[in-house]
From TrEMBL:
Residues 37-262 form the Lipid-binding serum glycoprotein N-terminal domain. This is Uncharacterized protein. SMART domains: BPI1 (SM00328), BPI2 (SM00329). It comes from Datura stramonium (Jimsonweed). Keywords: Glycoprotein, Signal.
Amino acid sequence: MAGSVSFFFFFFFSSSLLIFSSTHVESNEEGYISLDISNKGLDFVKEFLVEMAESSLVPLDLPKIEKSKHIPIIGTVSMVLSNITINNIHVISSTVKAGDTGIVISVSGAYANMTMNWEYSYSNWLIPIPIADNGKASIQVEDMDVGISFNLTNHQGSLMLSPLDCGCSVKDIFIKLDGGASWLYQGLIDAFEDRISSSVENAISKKLREGIVKLDSLLQSLPKEIPIRNIAALNVTFVGDPQFRDSSLILSINGLISSKDAYAAPPYHHLEHLLASLEHLLATVSVKDPTSMVTISLHEKVLVSASSVYYDANKMHWIVDKVPEQSLLNTAGWRFIIPQLYRQYPNDDMNLNVSIFSPPYLKIKEHQIDLTAHADVVINVLNSGEVTPVACFSMAVSGSASPWISNNNLGGSIGLDEFSLSLKWSKIGNFHVNLVRVLMSTALRTVILPYINLKLSKGYPLPTFHGYMLQNAEILCSDSWIKICSDVAPVKQSSTS
Ligand SMILES: *[C@@H]1O[C@H](CO)[C@@H](O)[C@H](O)[C@H]1NC(C)=O
Ligand SMILES: *[C@@H]1O[C@H](CO)[C@@H](O)[C@H](O)[C@H]1NC(C)=O
Ligand SMILES: *[C@@H]1O[C@H](CO)[C@@H](O)[C@H](O)[C@H]1NC(C)=O
Ligand SMILES: *[C@@H]1O[C@H](CO)[C@@H](O)[C@H](O)[C@H]1NC(C)=O
Ligand SMILES: *[C@@H]1O[C@H](CO)[C@@H](O)[C@H](O)[C@H]1NC(C)=O
């Protein structure tokens, strides 16, 4: 029984924690899991987006620029800049703000390196043969400010990003011509600065807008269900619009678990490159801020749905053949309690066939989770390879569990509140059920629970997701909700720190 109870305990928490294997405080209508992403968490997401933008914006090709300029004596010089490419962009600092007007990311002091080809030609009445020259040029764009704002809403259960505004302004630009008689035309090129600047501004704004549209379609394509161990699926449909409160972003998902058999894992591969960049980013972010990046709140209905799925999947039957006090599983241990059992099957081993016959009742309260389970326990006597059921008890156990998370281990302790036992049937005649109850209850309190608690006190490692795990996580229980406050970190980083 020890194994089963600790399994039970572990099951509830591991199934609820599995949710991370896949990625808010009050729920609205039907959101049973909510994610409250703090400023620190938003900052983290922003760093991620900025880093993605830096690499996905380049190389960015700008349209060709042509310009003619009349110069006294020389005449009209026509100049063409082509193959204008932004090769890299580097962001110095950025901020994110979430509010009723959407999410605003501002970047200041970015710079970019560009290259282009230049060519000129002119002719006048003095020189009848047209003169032409060409070469390459490098351009440095300095002090670029970029602002982007978008609205985050719920569209048919998926998050929808809609770009609201997107702007880019270039303060300084330096052009250096190479090749040909470039020294001669360096002065001329300055006339292009404004054209190049505005071309950069337009191209970056347009590309960022496109980036948001792509991110939006990625969000819309995310699955609405996440499979759990081939028997169940977590409903990750978003419920209600995202809310902005005290500069944090609150997202709610349905969060209930329902049964699914032979679940085919949805294709996640389109997320792989995203996760790879996330990994890179996480490795560079130092987490010193004491506030948590994210608070995950789980309503007790999530646990209830998990337990009923598990129940329906027929997973709540156990054969208990090992207990910490092994003498309890031999008829000799019962000699004085059920004498006729010992008389009929002297010194035979026994096992217990435990079947929970309704989904366990579960309620989250301040600092603890109350659990009640009803089970049938059949006593089997094992006699030279034969299994003989001799009696069946109907049992109700209620207790409470207090979970904790420490160093990425989920542990806890269980206490027993009530224990009741009655005889359902017996093949060995009547006996004193009271004595059995006292013995079982004593065994539970003095042997089995201490044994389980010893195991639980060591904790179970929290599940990881694509190489990520919770860091500095804490768990709190209060009035129907479990809250987990945590940072996110790659497994490698936190195992070395
Ligand atoms: C255009 O520029 C890229 C580098 O930015 C260079 O590799 C390529 O050869 C150039 N194309 C032409 C036609 O000059
Ligand atoms: C963002 O979307 C919400 C919900 O559709 C809407 O009420 C709000 O006005 C939008 N905000 C802006 C700035 O468009
Ligand atoms: C890009 O431009 C910055 C300054 O704007 C400069 O420091 C850096 O060396 C340039 N990088 C390349 C690869 O040209
Ligand atoms: C998932 O949750 C959404 C939102 O609460 C609900 O409308 C939908 O019916 C749920 N899907 C399933 C399969 O339960
Ligand atoms: C355990 O007991 C249940 C009825 O309570 C029975 O259906 C099942 O076959 C038993 N399992 C074993 C292995 O004895």
